[in-house]
Amino acid sequence: MSTEIPPPGETPRPARRDAEATKAAILRAARHFLARQAHADITLKAVAERAGVSPPLILKYFGNKDAVFARVMSFEEDAEALLGAPLEDLGRHMVRHVLVSQREHGSDPLLRIAFAPFQGDHGDILRANFRAQVTTRLAARLPGPDAGLRAELALAALLGLGVMFGIARGTDVRSTPVDETVERYGPLVQAQLIPRAY
Amino acid sequence: MSTEIPPPGETPRPARRDAEATKAAILRAARHFLARQAHADITLKAVAERAGVSPPLILKYFGNKDAVFARVMSFEEDAEALLGAPLEDLGRHMVRHVLVSQREHGSDPLLRIAFAPFQGDHGDILRANFRAQVTTRLAARLPGPDAGLRAELALAALLGLGVMFGIARGTDVRSTPVDETVERYGPLVQAQLIPRAY
Questions:
Q1: pTM to 2 decimals?
Q2: Which residue in the set A113, A172, A191 is minimally distant from B167, CB to CB?
């Protein structure tokens, strides 16, 4: 409802914006599949279909399938959302984030690490990114000793919740209101974040 | 050291025993891969190599690759070992079981469910077996309300520990003595098994 004139830097440039929007759609589609199945099972055709573009357009923009995947192996944005709460409420916030992502999108962003292949560059890059962008970042916020171990154990509990909800498809957790599961499971995660002595 | 003569039913029959041993080796090899990678990535050749047999021998015994996999989709034996402790110590026991399996075998048997494909019979059978043989069996032992949900959340924490140790390869959890992680993480699992009011 603003009547202000947009500043010069924000003048829309339709053509470029369209290319950017298309690239973003391709990356979103690749991300969608990487959060749901093994790398080897994902075809360029499936990514193209989901993005509403042709496979050759993906090749034009990115070169090849692996180059697309390389662009979506960052956990940077996911970590931002996952860790976006004050420490005293972080356990509950993270549990809620995983559950809401699973309910709304059929997966959660952390779960991509569960599909990291045992061998090869793809898995190693995912593991390194997960460590640097999620584990280390969480550990840096934790008071007390053994922050690295406690960050890993808190994240383990969250990863398992995603596996149980999204892959094992546990009937009870899927039919329980988010708030109730947050109340039950949040304190478990929180117990790793703030050690008893604190 | 017994000098007793074996009863007639136990007279060794080498030829048959060899075939059984070979089949068992094939199933062990299939199980090994299914606990480590996606179904689609596993070749008959790899299973044969690991079992020390030829691919045609696998086909002779089982018919095809999927028939081999169908034989190793049970969690029956795993559940026996995982749940083999009194309720008051079950949380710690289960955490120890996952950690020791990961350390000794590079995976844990529950983790097979994390590789269950989203689509297709293979994933659906794994999910149904996991529910019937692990979740439901654990839930049946739990006192108090919402036993099904609490069983799923306890198993979620264990699944996540396997993902963090075996797939994300968390450096801290991998370098921490089993006993210490059991002390830290066991109570989280136990908290789901026995509700506070009990």
A1: 0.80
A2: A113
d(CA B146, CA B151) in angstroms, rounded, equals 9
Chain B interface includes A131 (CB < 8 A): yes
Which residues neighbour A89 within 8 Å (Cβ) at sequence distance 6 or greater?
A: none
Question: Which ranges of chain A have pLDDT less than 50?
Answer: 1-13, 198
With CB atoms and an 8 Å threshold, state whether A153 touches B173: yes
pLDDT for the residue numbered A17: 58
- The answer, for A158 touching chain B at a CB cutoff of 8 Å, is yes
* Candidate CATH numbers 1.10.10.10, 1.10.357.10, 3.40.50.300, 2.60.40.1180; the one for domain B76-193: 1.10.357.10
pLDDT 10s digits, A16-30: 658 888 988 999 899
Rounded CA Rg of chain B: 19
Q: Evaluate whether ipTM surpasses 0.85.
A: no
Nearest CA in chain A to B149: A172
The verdict on A164 touching B (C-beta cutoff 8 Å) is yes
CATH second-level architecture of B17-72?
A: Orthogonal Bundle (1.10)
Instruction: Specify the pLDDT at position B186.
Output: 96
Nearest to A117 among B37, B155, B188 (CB): B37
